[in-house]
Amino acid sequence: MRLLNGLLVPTSGSVRVFGFDPATEPYRVRERVGMLFQNPDNGLVAPFVEDDVAFGLENLGVEREAMRERVAGAVRAVGLAGYERRETATLSGGEKQRVALAGILAVEPDLLVLDEPTSMLDPAGRREVLSRLAALRGERTVVHVTHHLEELSDADRVLVLVGGEIVADLSPAGLFADAELLGRANLSPPVLVRLAAALGLPTDVRTARELAREVARECGR
User: Fold this and answer.
1) pTM beyond 0.85
2) Domain limits at 212?
3) Backbone angles phi, psi at 85, to 5 degrees
4) Paired strand residues for 169
């Protein structure tokens, strides 16, 4: 993840992001890549919400009026309208992560990189952040690193790494159905998938409603 925006420099091989080398042209890359880290506190740099969201735009030299509009839009996009003058230290973990996400969205990156963004959040915070990320689907490219496979149910593509090596490149349904691969990668399929498998039903279900329909269909036979 950190190779994508020049936080780490490769010791072998090369990295290209939108045609640029992050090691030698980090600022060209960082204009187009936004990173959301797993610890919400690591993503906050200012005492008030709107100041934190504006931080990246200030570094890019965005004009004041345009900055206000982009900050307001980003705060609305993560569901925190009305929080502009709240102190970031008083927010919950989920709210802090959404503020960090707003700061990234304000810069309008082409690529959003998520480094296990829900791993340090409670269930309510996870739902908050995931619902906002789901709203971004189709708007930009998202690279999402996670051990929670239910967060990948709607992904277009899944890369599985074991010992630092890519061992599979497949769809979520393909991953969930491959018990050998899941065991090798020390991963567990989502609860709904495990329940469907235990009932002898198709394992490509994504929601409880889809599983309920499969159960009703099976019972009606």
Assistant:
1) no
2) 171-220
3) -105, 15
4) 159
